[in-house]
Design brief:
Largest sheet of chain B: 6 strands, mixed
Number of helices of chain A: 13
Number of strands of chain B: 19
CATH class of chain A: Mainly Alpha
Strand content of chain A: under 5%
Number of helices of chain B: 8
Number of domains of chain B: 2
Structural class of chain A: mainly alpha
Shape of chain A: globular
Distance between the termini of chain A: 44 Å
CATH class of the largest domain in chain B: Alpha Beta
Order of helices and strands of chain A: HHHHHHHHHHHHH
Largest sheet of chain A: none
Oligomer: heterodimer
Number of strands of chain A: 0
CATH superfamily of the largest domain in chain B: P-loop containing nucleotide triphosphate hydrolases
Bound molecules: adenosine-5'-triphosphate, magnesium ion
Radius of gyration of chain B: 25 Å
Strand order of the largest sheet of chain B: 6-7-8-3-9-10
Order of helices and strands of chain B: EEEHEEEHHHEHEHEEHHEEEEEEEEE
CATH topology of chain A: MetI-like fold
CATH topology of the largest domain in chain B: Rossmann fold
Largest interface: A-B, 20 and 30 residues
Chain lengths: ~290, ~350
Amino acid sequence: MTSAPAASRRIRLPDWAAWLGVAPFFVFAAMFLIAPTAWLLVGAFQDGDGAFTLANFVRLGQPSIRLSYALSLEISAASAALGALFGLALALAALRGGLPEWVRPTLMTFSGVASNFAGVPLAFAFMATLGRLGLVTVLLRTLGVDLYAHGFNVLTFWGLTITYLYFQIPLMVLVVTPAIDGLRREWKEAAETLGASAFQYWRMIALPVLWPSALGAALLLFANAFGAIATAYALTGSSFNIAPILLYAQIRGDVLHDPNLGYAVAVGMLAITGLTNLAYLALRSRTERLR
Amino acid sequence: MSFVTLARIQKSFGHAAVVKDFTLAVERGEFVTFLGPSGCGKTTILRMIAGFEQPSAGVIRIGGRDVTHLRANRRAIGMVFQAYALFPNMTVARNIGFGLKVAGKPAAEIEARVAEMLALIKLPDLAGRYPHQLSGGQQQRVSLARALAPNPQILLLDEPLSALDARIRVALREDIRALQRKLGITTIFVTHDQEEALSISDRIVVMHAGAIEQVGTPAEVYNRPKTRFVASFVGTLNTFAGVVADPAAGALRLGETTIFTRAPIEGARAGETRMLALRPEALSLEGAADGANALRVVIEDASFLGAVVRLKARFGDTILLADVFNAVGLALPQPGETVELSFRREDVIVLEGD
Ligand SMILES: Nc1ncnc2c1ncn2[C@@H]1O[C@H](COP(=O)(O)OP(=O)(O)OP(=O)(O)O)[C@@H](O)[C@H]1O
Ligand SMILES: [Mg+2]
């Protein structure tokens, strides 16, 4: 009759059953996050014979490693800043620029594909177009423009930064789109009835509401670029000194082989990526309060 | 001349005609409500007055000036939306001061006006809060203050109460009306809630499918609905058909029974069928007074609602609802019982059309 007996008849799962439900998550985290991190951490504090040492971290201070970190950070920062800027502009234009209906889905699909178009295929595409014998390079040379004579080189800071932009911009588009969609029509119309110009609306409302999301997205791009090894390695081989390649060389390389130093390099990268992600999360919680 | 005039406004989106030949004049200081079901075009008209949409045809004048093609930010209009329209990145004070700030007013003047508005909406302590720290009702009060702060010519409100719960809704609508009277601002209010419309308005514009069905005071619209649509949309109403017996005497036949209206039935001929309407509260169990009408009905159900008792009664094929006062000592009729329901001649509403 009443609902009380029905409620008590409802099957009550024991606590362990609830834990069983989330077990796959913990297994996943343990296998792909915790175990490798622990492995790295332990390895980073050991010497070649397995004894405890801080030497690996001390060696992170040596000029070649310091330089590779600096270069990685610079490329990541540059590609994140430029990617965020262009990505934001592109997304704003597509979503709020009064463009035809088909622009949005097309841009989204393209961005979904392009943001994953990193690694060897992207590197190959770059070499094939802008490399020393690339299509565009050769074409421009026949037109009398010699890119390389003007100091251009894919295997440089700018070369790598521009290459990274090819996946950073689409990634930015994907990450900020929800934030732009979150700009309510009422805000714009309320501002208008109150006498604001379109410029005033953007300056005083839309951009202040957007910037935490945009900055958060830029941090994500930074972490993304900082960890990207495949593109850099495929593009430059081991000839270009950035942190992921250095890491690769230490663990795999024939000449520099020193896994423990490699672990220390990785721990350093992990710390930087981790901090970036923390900042991203902090910004995101701030954004959520703005809704 | 009226303060706001809408002359033969039409609006189509693609092939869909959403507003059809809408003509209305609103006096200075008047509180006019657009009432109608969802999708009938209320918001669309409001948005054309605000300048967010362009009419496909017709002219809009405010204060004698043709504003049909004037940009929205030049119209000096205050608008309150259904919900979530406060700027999330600004405090309450900065929200309210926004209109004055973009108008380039000095900081001291803005501050004074914000304090004045906060007192008007009875939230003097919330100046430093952000919108997400306010309840729904408080947000709507702040929206109202923000819209009024720059002294707009007209105030437009698009279902400002529909996202709030019932108790707050009633309190806030009374406050809106009091504030509107105090400031004397010309106001257009949109709702699909008939009780809200009846309680708050000087005049109600009942809309249906993009056109006006009736314009009148709450009492006119409620007591003298012109069409069946108005009758059924505003309040609960019994409608049934009657055959005109003698138009001059106001006599109609319902089956075997003859009833009379207050006045002659204009434009009707004997033998014609007309739709009639009766409010539930016009029906009474207390025997017919002299000259009043009476119908013998069979009670189907009686439900006790407190101050009133709602009877469901059958008259021929028609089900009539009757609300009778719950007087002490009133013997409630039982289902199956045959009783006489009486009503005054002036309570019979003869509807236009069919
Ligand atoms: N921008 C638009 N494009 C196409 N159709 C529209 C547009 N705006 C409104 N309509 C259509 O116009 C009709 C009237 O819409 P409107 O919003 O004015 O109704 P309303 O009376 O305010 O309804 P509600 O009570 O649900 O708010 C609807 O059928 C709607 O689908
Ligand atoms: Mg509406």
